[in-house]
Design a protein that fits this description.
The chain is mainly beta and 685 residues long. The protein is 5% helix and 50% strand. The protein is built from 3 helices and 44 strands. Strands 4-17-20-19-14-13 form a 6-stranded mixed sheet, with helices on one face. α1 runs antiparallel to α3 (255-266). It is globular, with a radius of gyration of 27 Å.
């Protein structure tokens, strides 16, 4: 008889006649236990993945659900979480993306005639005396040949959704991803935010063959929370997280209560623990089947984790057809090329006042809706959180990725890793620094440590560009002509830093960040805590034609301001012109104080924000190119009270180019101007 304390699995053998022989059918069944075994919480997978068609996955998931509901369990996780922009041969701008031919979701999409805007301003219809539009409405506007633009329709994609996450547009199909928030749920840890137990999202597919009468053809409510998404041709890839919630799991104050909870979980049908989706007709379907879920290959019967990350592929021509796989482990981010999807995350172990960071990468090949697990790899260090996907680059059979370990007080160690797939393992075959090229990424101080953290990374063809920062901005060019022997080929140190890098050609690199005067230092109560004073948003054009000696061609500083491009490169608008020049637009926000005098002559200092869409131009793609500003567009309401302005956060502001016409999108309103006279602004529309 099996020891039920050590094993919850029994084998049931049955015989059935089949012709003149017999078949032996072996079934694995999870039975109740007499005591709860000592289980291991596995928050991050750090090895290769395998499909377990038996009860391996089921037991791992159920162990994890029990561990999460243990009253004495304390889960601590991190405080999260070939490169170029879109090649555009049209005369209008598209969403700025990391990889060519890999589209990314944004709050606006444009096809050259129709503009689709995800509503971020629930009151935009009030100005017209109409009913307020919900946050999950899409405003559809038509541009005429004259450049004028007007709303032709507005569509609510989901009554139950809380906010639109992102839009995708492919031919006549608009895909809308929306978050559905449970405002009654209060989370206390990052874990609960990443794997919410009562979260869901909406995925709607809108036919815009006739944009005046858009039609929601398919709408799914999916259990879980959106991590990220990408589109390659007609296939939309959505990565979501999920953790099941079970009824009948009570607060456990005794071992008897813990045992009862554990046996309740073991007896639950595995289908009830996996995410579902509900279609537009109210029919519920499995988002992923247990046999399509991956586990670490070294998982034991005593391990458990209840978080599921699902990679779902949807054919935009037939959205009702969904294909999904899942990983029963934590994943924090996504990098995608045309042929691969990489899921990644970092495991943080805290012991004796120190932190050990181990990062994992899981590679899946994708071709349409076909998803195939390929390999996994582990690296020392982390990917950081802001724009971490830009630290990745797939080139041929190689994956290049930048990691960071350490901290400001003890020093950082930055490493560029080159990985290659061998079997089901992503092996590190080269890295920088190395024995031949020992120079560290980041300026080395007198004590031999690097105190500069990485602000931005970008790969382009056979180079990588890395910006580090403490008081000044070192730009490093990494030579990757031979991926097996990476080296630092050149560097440049200038004031400030670039938080986003945009390769323009073999000769030019654009940097967007903040200007800093290293001579002006802001001190705190601690002598060790000093920082330079940030003076404003900065746009820099670099000459990288000589990789051994990069140069700053020119820069523009916008005093006391910041741009959302530092955190979201979708906010950068760009358009290549027929004469070889390139136009750019980016939102800018600054906060001002003004003195207000009331009717009693009392003076008050009030804060208000000031937002613009600033314009600049680069004259060509060679090292002789010039960077110059072209003014700005100020979005003002026609009936706005100057003492009580209508404020929007500039984070979601967007610009749009179509020829010489410029459109500035704030909230759901649109302002219009022209490149040759941007100060002459029409709107809002």
């Amino acid at each position: 008889m099996l020891n039920k304390q050590l094993s919850t699995i029994v084998m049931v053998v049955s015989l059935s006649a089949c012709g003149d022989g017999s078949d032996t059918v072996v079934e694995e069944i999870i039975e109740p236990v007499s005591s709860v075994p000592e289980l291991n919480q596995m928050a991050m997978t750090v090895g290769s993945l395998v499909l377990q068609n038996g009860i391996g996955f089921e037991l791992h998931l159920k162990n994890g659900i029990y561990l999460r509901n243990r009253s004495d369990l304390k889960i601590t996780l991190a405080d999260a979480p070939e490169s170029s922009s879109t090649a555009n041969s049209t005369n209008y701008s598209l969403t700025t993306v990391q990889e060519q031919n890999v589209d990314e979701g944004d709050r606006i999409k444009y096809d050259g005639q129709y503009l689709f805007i995800a509503n971020q301003d629930e009151n935009f219809h009030i100005l017209e005396g109409e009913k307020s539009a919900p946050q999950t409405s899409v405003r559809i506007m038509k541009r005429e040949d004259s450049g004028t633009i007007n709303e032709i329709s507005s569509l609510t994609v989901s009554e139950e959704a809380s906010q639109i996450n992102s839009l995708y547009l492919k031919d006549d199909m608009l895909a809308v991803l929306s978050d559905i928030y449970d405002y009654g749920r209060v989370s206390s840890t990052f874990y609960e935010d990443f794997f919410p137990t009562e979260q869901s999202f909406n995925l709607s597919f809108v036919s815009v063959d006739d944009p005046q009468t858009p039609d929601v053809e398919h709408s799914f409510v999916v259990e879980g929370s959106i991590i990220d998404s990408r589109r390659v041709d007609n296939t939309l890839y959505v990565i979501s997280s999920y953790s099941a919630r079970l009824e009948g799991i009570n607060y456990a104050s005794t071992e008897e209560d813990n045992l009862a909870n554990y046996n309740t979980i073991l007896a639950t049908n595995i289908s009830d623990l996996l995410p579902k989706y509900t279609d537009i007709n109210g029919q519920k379907h499995e988002l992923v089947a247990a046999e399509n879920c991956y586990l670490p290959e070294d998982t034991s019967k005593l391990d458990g984790f209840d978080g599921i990350v699902t990679l779902t592929a949807i054919d935009l021509t037939q959205p009702e057809n969904l294909e999904s796989i899942c990983v029963n482990a934590q994943v924090e981010g996504l990098y995608a090329s045309e042929k691969s999807v990489y899921l990644y995350g970092t495991d943080y172990q805290y012991q004796a006042g120190s932190t050990t960071e181990t990062s994992v990468i899981h590679k899946f090949s994708v071709q349409g809706q076909q998803i195939q697990y390929k390999a996994s790899g582990t690296l020392d260090g982390r990917f950081n959180w802001n724009l971490s996907n830009l630290r990745f680059s797939e080139q041929g059979d190689y994956l290049r990725v930048v990691t960071t370990s350490g901290n400001r007080s003890e020093g950082y160690h930055h490493k560029l890793n080159v990985l290659s797939e061998e079997g089901n393992t992503l092996n590190v075959i080269a890295h920088l620094p190395n024995d031949l090229n020992q120079k560290l990424v980041g300026k080395v101080s007198e004590d031999g440590n690097v105190y500069e953290d990485i602000k931005s990374v970008r790969f382009y063809q056979q180079q990588a560009y890395i910006v580090t920062f403490l008081n000044t901005d070192p730009l490093y060019i990494i030579d990757l002509k031979d991926n097996l022997t990476p080296s630092i080929s050149g560097e440049l140190e200038i004031p400030g830093y670039s938080a986003y890098l945009q390769p323009l050609s073999d000769s030019l690199l654009l940097g967007i960040g903040q200007n800093v005067d290293p001579g002006r230092i802001l001190t705190s109560n601690s002598d060790e805590e000093v920082s330079p004073i940030i003076e404003g948003a900065k746009v820099t054009l670099f000459d990288i034609s000589d990789v051994t000696a990069p140069k700053e061609i020119h820069s523009i500083v916008y005093e006391d301001a910041y741009t959302p491009v530092e955190y979201d490169y979708h906010a950068l608008t760009q358009l290549s012109m027929s004469d070889g020049s390139k136009r750019f637009a980016m939102p800018l926000e600054r906060w001002l104080t003004e003195t207000y005098v009331d009717e009693n002559q009392q003076k008050y200092d009030i804060w208000r924000s000031e937002s613009d869409l600033v314009l600049f131009e680069i004259s060509g793609i060679t090292k002789d190119a010039a960077l110059k500003g072209n003014g700005k567009i100020r979005a003002a309401m026609q009936d706005e009270d100057p003492n009580n302005p209508v404020n929007f956060n500039a984070y979601d502001d967007r610009g749009l180019f179509h020829g010489d016409d410029i459109y500035y999108i704030r909230g759901s309103r649109v302002w219009q101007s022209r490149w040759l006279n941007p100060e002459n602004v029409l709107g809002p529309f």
